[in-house]
Amino acid sequence: FLGADHRKLKPAAQCQPVDYPKPDGKITFDLLTSVALTGTNHLHHRTTEPPGDQPPHLTLMDDTVQVKQNLAVYDGPEGHFCPAGVYEYVPTEDGQSKKFQISAQNCIHCKTCDIKDPSQNINWVAPEGGGGPAYNGM
């Protein structure tokens, strides 16, 4: 069982889909509530620059790998292993295929993508400004 986590992912053809129950608001919560509870803040703490001016902390080494490998072989695992829904595959403009989209503003800085990405193509770096997460009681 030892070894790199990203090497443990099985191709989608070898797996059964998981049907998760809807959040109940008591023990399980919707994505937006869960992200808000982390206290992550994407504002610059040392400057007055808006969050959109921050250097990207989530990048791809090769822009084609997620669709060619991760979507094709593993059915887009990023949408499952990212607890904040940062990664998704959206239809292209012509509707004939999908493209990989990163919503970095939702990132809770857990680094799961850097560990679990089977292609090891996602580069996670600590975001500028130290904006969280800020879990209470820790």
UniProtKB/TrEMBL annotation:
Enzyme's top EC category: oxidoreductase
Co-factor(s): [4Fe-4S] cluster; FAD
4Fe-4S as UniProt keyword: yes
Keyword Transcription appears in the UniProt entry: no
Cofactor note: Binds 1 [4Fe-4S] cluster.
Membrane-spanning ranges: none
Record-listed E.C. numbers: 1.5.5.1
GO terms of molecular function: 4 iron, 4 sulfur cluster binding; electron-transferring-flavoprotein dehydrogenase activity; metal ion binding
ETF-QO/FixX C-terminal domain ranges (all copies): 25-136
Alphabetical UniProt keywords: 4Fe-4S, Electron transport, FAD, Flavoprotein, Iron, Iron-sulfur, Metal-binding, Oxidoreductase, Transport, Ubiquinone
Signal peptide range: none
Cellular component GO terms, alphabetical: mitochondrial inner membrane
Organism superkingdom: Eukaryota
Alphabetized SUPFAM superfamilies for the sequence: 4Fe-4S ferredoxins
Catalytic reaction(s) noted: a ubiquinone + reduced [electron-transfer flavoprotein] = a ubiquinol + oxidized [electron-transfer flavoprotein] + H(+)
Reported function: Accepts electrons from ETF and reduces ubiquinone.
The protein's name: Electron transfer flavoprotein-ubiquinone oxidoreductase
Native source organism of the sequence: Daphnia magna
